[in-house]
Amino acid sequence: MQIENIPEIYQQENSQNKDLFIYDYKMTEDVVKSKVQLSMNMFSFLQVGKKQVHFADATAMVSKDQSLLIRQGNWLWTELLDNDDIYFCKLFFFSEQILLDYLKKYELKEPEAKEETSFFIIENDEYITSFLSTLSNISQIPDKFSSQMLSIKFEEILTYLLTKYGADFEKYLYSLISKEISPFKKTVESNAYSNLKLEEFAFLCNMSLSSFKRRFLREFGESPGKWLQDKRLQRAHDILQEGDLTASDIYLDFGYGNLSNFSAAFKNKFGINPTELQKS
Predict the structure, then answer these.
(1) Contact 255/198 with Cβ under 8 angstroms?
(2) pLDDT of 41
(3) Cα–Cα distance for residue pair 168/161, rounded to 1 Å
(4) What is the pLDDT of residues 205-229, one digit of tens each?
(5) Which of 31, 87, 201, 234 is the least buried, fewest Cβ under 10 Å from its Cβ?
(6) How far, in Å, CA of 64 to CA of 268, rounded?
(7) How far apart are the C-alpha atoms of 236 and 262, rounded to whole Å?
(8) Could you say which residues form the signal peptide (predicted)?
């Protein structure tokens, strides 16, 4: 049985969001078994059919009334049940970093005990059905807005499931966090919102610039320039939205030599000028 890595096999090289990704997956009777390894955490929202999912340490039988949240690093294979012709599910992948950002934003405290199972079973309901309908519509939104919309939908589903399942779901969310974060990642993430140049990041990591770029790509899945720009612009967006500071006050803090370059990068990412955001 061939093993494939997901979501890599579904993503295009120019995918605009490395932290969140949705994919509509169909399995037909022509594909009885499919074995995959997850490199991101994944919601599998089953919408049509039945399936049996085999993990290294467990098996889950899932109908269209249920969905799964599955930890990254799992390998699994799936097969159809009861001679169903097809099953269809919407896969919603998310990175560990965006989960960490969510937990920090809402000040959720790490529980003493964690749910150490490979998956968490979700009972579908009217809210989740409605959520999936809106999620489907995101594919029709221009790329420059869809990334922001996915972030909103990610927060929405986590918040709803925390409300629905309480401490059990919170424990499982924390079990998705790696036990250790590499010193390299800690250095990068702790300085992400500074105006340090790549050469200075490489110095802090005790690496040459070329070694730093290769390591960054391996750890974060994209180039350091793109990752840092996205992080800094998102932080700038949040600050400007609060209304206390203007673009003129902050552009230097995020590594831009002049206001014009900052405004151009901001508009390219969010579709509006910084001044438009402040007026909204």
Answers:
(1) no
(2) 94
(3) 10
(4) 888 999 899 888 878 878 899 999 9
(5) 31
(6) 40
(7) 10
(8) none
Residue 258: count of CB within 10 angstroms of its CB = 10
Domain range 183-279, its CATH number among 3.30.230.70, 1.20.120.10, 3.10.580.10, 1.10.10.60: 1.10.10.60
Looking at the chain, how many residues does it have? 280
CATH number of 3-175: 2.60.120.810
Domain ranges (residues) in the chain: 3-175, 183-279
How far, in Å, are 31, 45, 132 from residue 67 at the CA level? 21, 5, 12
Strand-by-strand arrangement of the 119-123 sheet: 20-28, 86-94, 41-48, 66-70, 119-123
Distance, CA of 68 to CA of 220 (rounded, Å): 25
Whether the CB-CB separation of 121 and 161 falls below 8 Å is answered with: no
Give the range among 43-52, 128-137, 159-168 with minimum mean pLDDT.
43-52
Note the pLDDT tens digit of each residue in 88-133: 889 999 988 899 889 988 888 888 776 678 899 999 999 999 999 9
